[in-house]
Design brief:
about 600 residues; Immunoglobulin-like; 8-stranded antiparallel β-sheet; 5-stranded antiparallel β-sheet; 7 helices; Vgb; Lyase; heme binding
C-alpha cells in the first residue's frame, strides 16, 4: 500500500500560485457553499486513432479538473493550472457563472439569485424530479425505480422530457431488451403514466422540490476529476491498485484505463477478443442498435490478487475470467464450460477469486493454484424459475437472431426467472457473501463445506455489499434509499435512511467500507452525490459532484482516505456534458 499512499499524498500538493476567490450575493453578503470548479478552456488533445480512442499502450495526458467550496466568508483558494483555464461557480438557487482565469481580479464575484421556476427546477438533481412521480401505486413506482435505474438516472435531463406514450413504450421495449425486468403490467401501464406526469411537471416546474442542501463542512473538501473515454463509453467499475494506479473498465468498448491520479496521465489497454468471439459476445443481440460499441467481453468488475498484484476482470458477455498483469500489460484468459454472466468479483486471503454469475443463479470460485473452477448453485424460487434460468443462454441466442422473445414472455412483479445474484464480498472469516437483487436475500458460501445459506432481508433490492473490519456486512437497498448493516453473529439487520432530500428518493448502487477509519461510502446514484457514514458517530456527510447526471456504480478508498468513483451512466451521453470521468474526493 506504500506506493498508493505516496501517489495519493501527491494529490494534495498545490502549485505555489493559488488564486483566492471571494463570492458574494447581490447585497454584498458572503456566499458559502458555492462550488468553484476549475475547468480547462479547451479539453486536452488526446490520441483518437483507435476508433475514437487512444491506441492501446500509448500514454496520454488529460487535464485534471478541480472543485472546492467557499467557506462562511464566501472564500476558496483555487490552484492555478498550467494550461488556459476558467472557473465555473455553481450553487442551487443562484445562476451559474463562468469566468476566464485572466478575468479574475481582486474584487468579489457577485452571483445573481435565480427566480425563474423552470431554471430553479433545472438545477435540481434527478432524485428531486423523480420524487414527483406518482403512479398512484407505490409498489409499481418502486419496481419502476428498481428496473429503470439500472443503467441511468430517472429524472435526469434526458428522462424527464415530454414524450408521447408511444415514445415511452418504444424506449421501455429497448430497455427490456438491454436487460430491464419491468413487469408486463408495468410495461403496459407506465408509458401513459409517464406522458401525463412529465406534461404536468413541465407545465408547473415549481412542483419540483429542492434537493439535498450543501453543508458548510464542504469547505474542507476537494474534488478532482479526470475526463476519460467519450459519450459512447461506460466506465463501469474501478480498482485502486497497490501500485498507486486506478484501473477503470470501459464496459462498452473493452478497454482498461490505467490512470495515475496524481498527474492525470493515463494509458488505455484494449482487451483483444479471442478467436471465434462475436461482437456482443454471448449476448450478441443486446446492443444491436447501439450507435457504437466494441463489446466482445463486456468488462464489469475488477479485483487485485493479494499474492502477485494481477488484476482479474469479469467479462459479463463471456464464460471466462480475464487476468491482467500490470507490469507486462499482458492479458490471459481463464475459460469456463458453464455459468452465465460473470458479474462482481473479490479475492479471498488464499488468492482464490470469488464471483457472482448473475444470469445462471450461481456463485463461482476460481482457485488459481489448482487452476480449477467451482460453481455453487443458489436455490430457485420455483420450478418455472429453474427452467427459465437453464434456458437463459438459448433465450439470448434467439434475441441475437432478432426474435423478440421478450414480447412473448410474461414478467411478473418479482422477476421470476432472474433471481440475479449481484454483489459479493469476503468477510474476515473467509466466507463469501452475496446479495441477490431480485429475491430480497443475501447468501453465504462456506468455502470449506460448500454450504450455501440464504437469508431474507427486511428490505427490497439488496444490490452490492461489503464487509467491515468486524465482519459485519454493509448492504445497499437500491430502491429503498437505504443502506443496512447485517451482523452475522446475531442475525440482526440495522437499516439506515440515506440523508437525501426529498426523503427516500435516492437509489444507492454500491458502497465500500473504509476499514481503518470505520466509515461507509455510498454511491448517490440518482442524486449526483456520494455519501459518507461514520459508524462510530452515526454522522452522515454528502459530497455533490461537479457534473449533473453523475451516475456512479462503484467506490474505491485509498490508504490516505481519498475516495474514487466514476461517472458510469449508460449511455454516457446522459451526463451533463456527455463526458465520463474518474472522480477523486478528498474530504479534508
Amino acid at each position: 500500500m506504500a506506493a498508493a499512499g505516496m501517489a495519493c499524498a501527491a494529490l494534495l500538493a498545490m502549485p505555489a500560485s493559488a488564486v483566492p476567490i471571494t463570492v458574494q450575493d447581490a447585497t454584498g453578503k458572503p456566499l458559502p457553499t458555492v462550488m468553484v470548479s476549475r475547468q480547462p478552456v479547451q479539453a486536452a488533445a488526446v490520441d483518437t486513432s483507435d476508433n475514437g480512442y487512444p491506441a492501446s499502450g500509448k500514454p496520454q495526458q488529460a487535464y485534471v479538473e478541480l472543485a472546492r467550496f467557499t467557506d462562511a466568508q464566501g472564500q476558496a483558494d483555487i490552484p492555478a493550472a498550467e494550461h488556459p483555464w476558467k472557473i465555473r461557480l455553481r450553487k442551487p438557487g443562484y445562476q451559474d457563472q463562468s469566468l476566464l482565469a485572466a478575468d479574475l481580479g481582486s474584487k468579489p464575484i457577485v452571483m445573481a439569485a435565480e427566480s425563474d421556476p423552470a431554471a430553479l427546477a433545472e438545477q435540481q438533481p434527478a432524485n428531486a424530479w423523480s420524487s414527483t412521480i406518482d403512479f398512484a401505486n407505490a409498489a409499481l413506482k418502486k419496481e419502476f425505480m428498481l428496473q429503470c435505474n439500472f443503467c441511468h438516472q430517472q429524472g435526469g435531463a434526458m428522462l424527464r422530457r415530454e414524450r408521447s406514450a408511444d415514445d415511452w413504450d418504444s424506449a421501455i421495449k429497448r430497455m427490456v431488451r438491454y436487460g430491464a425486468r419491468l413487469s408486463t403490467e408495468g410495461q403496459k401501464t407506465i408509458p401513459a403514466l409517464l406522458e401525463a406526469h412529465w406534461k404536468k411537471i413541465h407545465a408547473n416546474p415549481a412542483l419540483v422540490p429542492a434537493g439535498t442542501p450543501w453543508n458548510p463542512a464542504l469547505a474542507q473538501a476537494t474534488i478532482r476529476e479526470l475526463p476519460i473515454g467519450d459519450s459512447m463509453s461506460q466506465m463501469h467499475d474501478l480498482l485502486l491498485h497497490t501500485n498507486g494506479m486506478v484501473y477503470v473498465g470501459d464496459n462498452l468498448q473493452d478497454r482498461v484505463y490505467e490512470v495515475d491520479p496524481a498527474t492525470g496521465k493515463y494509458t488505455v489497454y484494449k482487451i483483444p477478443p479471442r478467436p471465434g468471439d462475436q461482437l456482443g459476445g454471448l449476448l450478441a443481440g443486446r446492443l444491436r442498435d447501439f450507435p457504437k460499441h466494441e463489446t466482445y467481453q463486456g468488462i464489469h468488475s475488477l479485483a487485485e490478487s493479494p499474492k502477485d498484484g494481477h488484476i482479474f476482470i469479469t467479462p459479463s458477455y463471456q464464460r471466462r475470467l480475464i487476468e491482467f498483469d500490470p507490469q507486462t500489460k499482458a492479458f490471459r484468459y481463464h475459460e469456463m464450460d458453464s455459468g452465465f454472466y460473470p458479474h462482481t468479483l473479490r479475492f479471498d486471503a488464499k488468492d482464490r477469486v470469488w464471483f457472482t454469475l448473475a444470469l445462471s443463479n450461481q456463485v463461482g470460485m476460481y482457485d488459481r493454484a489448482a487452476n480449477k473452477f467451482t460453481l455453487y448453485d443458489l436455490p430457485f424460487r420455483s420450478l418455472m424459475e429453474r427452467i427459465t434460468v437453464k434456458l437463459t443462454p438459448f433465450i439470448f441466442k434467439l434475441l441475437g437472431w432478432g426474435i423478440p422473445v421478450a414480447n412473448y414472455v410474461k414478467v411478473d412483479h418479482v422477476s421470476t426467472g432472474v433471481p440475479l445474484p449481484y454483489g459479493i464480498d469476503i468477510t474476515p472469516d473467509g466466507k463469501a457473501w452475496i446479495a441477490r437483487l431480485h429475491t430480497d436475500e443475501i447468501a453465504s458460501v462456506d468455502p470449506d463445506s460448500g454450504k450455501v445459506t440464504m437469508i431474507k432481508t427486511p428490505f427490497s433490492a439488496p444490490r452490492r455489499l461489503r464487509s467491515d473490519r468486524d465482519g459485519n456486512l454493509w448492504i445497499v437497498a437500491f430502491n429503498a434509499s437505504q443502506i443496512a448493516r447485517y451482523t452475522p453473529s446475531t442475525g440482526e439487520f440495522l437499516r439506515l435512511d440515506l440523508p437525501v432530500v426529498p426523503k427516500g428518493s435516492d437509489t444507492p448502487y454500491s458502497l465500500n467500507v473504509d476499514r481503518s477509519r470505520h466509515q461507509v461510502w455510498v454511491n448517490g446514484t440518482n442524486s449526483d452525490s456520494v455519501y459518507r457514514y461514520d459508524i462510530a458517530t452515526q454522522a452522515w456527510s454528502m459530497f455533490p459532484m461537479q457534473r449533473r447526471v453523475a451516475f456512479t456504480r462503484d467506490v474505491e478508498i485509498s490508504p490516505k482516505g481519498q475516495v474514487y468513483v466514476t461517472s458510469a451512466s449508460f449511455p454516457s451521453w446522459h451526463i451533463e456534458d456527455a463526458q465520463p470521468t474518474l472522480i477523486e474526493i478528498t474530504p479534508r
